[in-house]
């Protein structure tokens, strides 16, 4: 099936773009000729486990150089050396899991993240407190990292991603493992981030995309199978026998077919 591509103009310049990006591990192609542009607001990367979402986020973050194709991010084309160092000060990343010293307090951990992102020392404490306020964790600033619940840890993970006031923030499966109430809270939080900076969020949950994203790209086995607005994804099939009615899930199943139902 050929990819569905929206031609609708977004009215904003892309914040990041990949063109013809492929990545292989040995004989396995993980990203296959991926061309995508990301603009302001929240963009979802929707796909099953192993589709290549984390790998694409690592390319956008400059952590991984594409085997072929080009990355343009925050105005830097095919960044290298000094450009990569500049970019890392302007990009925030929430990985699927992140390491920390359990004895650090929440504030110490967030300040440490600010140091890593080269926030000037005079501003580090203030920026850490602001980032913790943003994720409603300021009241836990003195709690040890090792004493946080999973949901709290995820919020601190977002705080560390926002501590350098990034222009682009990359969230890898931010709602995985959260209970339903926490997930609802996170959706509101992520929508708020989208008003401050461009957000790219990977997920395998159609519901997250429906509630949070302005735009969505569907990745299946390393290939882009759809890119457009959430409404355009919902409108793809009309309705799905599996889930009934037009929805993100129905649009996704229309693209993924039995691959998604059986995975
Ligand atoms: N360093 C690596 N060496 C070999 N294979 C890898 C490596 N990193 C990722 N892969 C493989 O690349 C494929 C894509 O992985 P990736 O983590 O990008 O997918 P994903 O869509 O983020 O999946 P998930 O939702 O499970 O995290 C998987 O098959 C994975 O096993």
UniProtKB/TrEMBL annotation:
<keyword id="KW-0067">ATP-binding</keyword>
<dbReference type="GO" id="GO:0005524">
    <property type="term" value="F:ATP binding"/>
</dbReference>
<dbReference type="InterPro" id="IPR003439">
    <property type="entry name" value="ABC_transporter-like_ATP-bd"/>
</dbReference>
<keyword id="KW-0813">Transport</keyword>
<dbReference type="InterPro" id="IPR003593">
    <property type="entry name" value="AAA+_ATPase"/>
</dbReference>
<dbReference type="Pfam" id="PF00005">
    <property type="entry name" value="ABC_tran"/>
</dbReference>
<feature type="domain" description="ABC transporter">
    <location>
        <begin position="16"/>
        <end position="246"/>
    </location>
</feature>
<dbReference type="InterPro" id="IPR027417">
    <property type="entry name" value="P-loop_NTPase"/>
</dbReference>
<protein>
    <submittedName>
        <fullName>ATP-binding cassette domain-containing protein</fullName>
    </submittedName>
</protein>
<keyword id="KW-0547">Nucleotide-binding</keyword>
<comment type="similarity">
    <text>Belongs to the ABC transporter superfamily.</text>
</comment>
<dbReference type="InterPro" id="IPR017871">
    <property type="entry name" value="ABC_transporter-like_CS"/>
</dbReference>
């Amino acid at each position: 099936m050929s990819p569905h591509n929206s031609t609708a103009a977004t009215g904003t310049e892309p914040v990041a773009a990949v063109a013809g990006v492929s990545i292989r591990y040995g004989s396995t192609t993980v990203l296959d000729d991926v061309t995508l542009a990301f603009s302001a607001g929240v963009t979802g990367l929707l796909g099953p486990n192993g589709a290549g979402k984390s790998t694409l986020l690592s390319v956008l973050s400059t952590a991984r150089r594409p085997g072929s194709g080009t990355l343009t991010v925050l105005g830097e084309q095919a960044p290298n050396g000094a450009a990569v160092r500049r970019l890392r000060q302007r990009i925030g990343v929430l990985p699927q899991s992140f390491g920390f010293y359990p004895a650090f307090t929440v504030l110490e951990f967030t300040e440490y993240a600010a140091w890593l992102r080269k926030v000037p020392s005079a501003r580090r404490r203030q920026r850490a407190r602001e980032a913790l306020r943003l994720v409603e964790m300021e009241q836990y600033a003195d709690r040890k990292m090792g004493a946080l619940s999973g949901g709290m840890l995820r919020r601190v993970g977002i705080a560390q991603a926002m501590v350098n006031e990034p222009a682009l923030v990359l969230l890898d499966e931010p709602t995985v493992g959260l209970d339903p109430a926490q997930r609802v809270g996170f959706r509101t939080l992520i929508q708020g981030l989208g008003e401050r900076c461009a957000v790219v969020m990977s997920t395998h949950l159609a519901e997250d995309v429906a509630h949070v994203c302005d735009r969505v790209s569907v990745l299946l086995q390393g290939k882009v199978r759809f890119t457009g607005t959430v409404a355009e994804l919902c409108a793809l099939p009309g309705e799905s026998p599996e889930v009934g009615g037009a929805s993100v899930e129905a649009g996704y199943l229309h693209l993924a077919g039995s691959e998604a139902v059986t995975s």
